[in-house]
Amino acid sequence: MKIGVYPPKNWLARLYRLQKKTSKSGFNSIIRSFLGDGLSDSQLRWYRLKMKWAYVWHQWNESEYFHFGYERLSREGRKKYVTELEKDLFCRKYNQSKTHRIFNNKGLTYQYFAPYYKRDVCIVNKAEVDMSELADFLSKHTDVIVKPICESMGNGIRIIRNASVEAIAPIVEKTTDGLIVEELICQSSALSVFHPKSVNTVRIPTWVVDDKINVLPSFIRFGCGGAEVDNAAKGGLFGFIDLESGIVTGVCDKKGRPQVVHPDSHLSIVGLSIPHWDECVSLAKELAKVVPDAKYVGWDLAFTDNGWALVEGNVYGQFVCQQLSSRKGIRDFLLAIDPHCFDFE
């Protein structure tokens, strides 16, 4: 399967692409975000050079240089990590383009997976707004969560208390495609106790190879502070889950800084046993059968008093959180399933 090479194979072409993609000030901003403001110009220049080297020879992006500890690893150790660039190629290789359309549109996702949501949902398409349907939905559910149909990483998500058509209509107008309005997930206290303001979800990726559903390294996310979502991009924490036991063995923030307890609740996350882990895994495997052409999907699942429920599926689900929280690359894990999974031509 030829899907195109990104980044270019030629190292000079990769260097040129990097120079065009990230400016000197852009490099400096990333370096300071990890190391602080006390670096001299010569130190910044040296880091920029090393980061370019990491990209040109190993395809590590600017943040991965610090996330995965480029300097502390041997040449062989660096090869154990799967980079964001490789992950994108992996996802394109194993998912047909029509599956992207399904999972990149939350409205379409709901149409395929409605029985697994375990909550009421109202889709408000901008092109054909039906406010009567929304009004009927809000008569049953006064507190809702609204999500732009085609956004990701927690962007545009908000919880609205005592919601009304008048409150939601202007939000629809500001979106490109519309909204999906959902009944709030009633999260079980077993996980809400860590951070009640957000639904703290588990990400379980599944990868179907030769009709066998493989469960890949997984992680749990927790919101922090005033955030109403658990995404790392919004300041959350994430923890690596041991697949056999369902126990969280390592936790960190988006900068890769290790954590043990939640900063708000002060409860220990390391050592947490994910409730009904076997059922969580079983649900992910069941979901993997619904759209046969979607070979790789990262499933976000929430634990409720009625069991595990689907939040959403991601056909470009990341590998960084698993590798960052475990401090271990997953390349060998993937190669053991399919030795040709990184052959992109």
Report on this model:
The protein has helices spanning 11-21, 24-35, 41-58, 62-67, 75-78, 84-94, 97-103, 106-113, 131-140, 165-174, 189-192, 277-287, 320-326, 331-337; strands at 121-125, 144-148, 158-160, 178-183, 202-209, 212-215, 218-222, 237-241, 248-252, 258-259, 296-304, 307-314. The chain is α+β, with helices and mostly antiparallel strands and 345 residues long. The strands form 2 sheets. Strands 5, 6, 7, 8, 9, 10, 11 and 12 form an 8-stranded antiparallel sheet that branches. A hairpin with a 2-residue loop joins strand 5 (202-209) and strand 6 (212-215). Helix 1 crosses helix 3. It is globular, with a radius of gyration of 21 Å. The N and C termini lie close together (6 Å).
Topology:
Layout: H1 11-21, H2 24-35, H3 41-58, H4 62-67, H5 75-78, H6 84-94, H7 97-103, H8 106-113, E1 121-125, H9 131-140, E2 144-148, E3 158-160, H10 165-174, E4 178-183, H11 189-192, E5 202-209, E6 212-215, E7 218-222, E8 237-241, E9 248-252, E10 258-259, H12 277-287, E11 296-304, E12 307-314, H13 320-326, H14 331-337
Antiparallel strand pairs: 1-4, 2-3, 2-4, 5-6, 5-7, 5-11, 7-8, 8-9, 9-10, 11-12
Count of helical stretches: 14
CA radius of gyration: 21 Å
State the share of residues found in helices, binned by percent.
25-40%
**Beta-strand level of the residues, as a percent range?**
15-25%
- Give average pLDDT, whole number: 89
H-E order = HHHHHHHHEHEEHEHEEEEEEHEEHH
| Number of strand elements | 12
The helix-and-strand class reads alpha+beta
Q: What is the 3D form?
A: globular
Low-confidence runs of at least 5 consecutive residues: none
Distance from N terminus to C terminus (CA atoms, Å) equals 6 Å
For the largest beta-sheet, the strand count, sense and barrel status come to: 8 strands, antiparallel
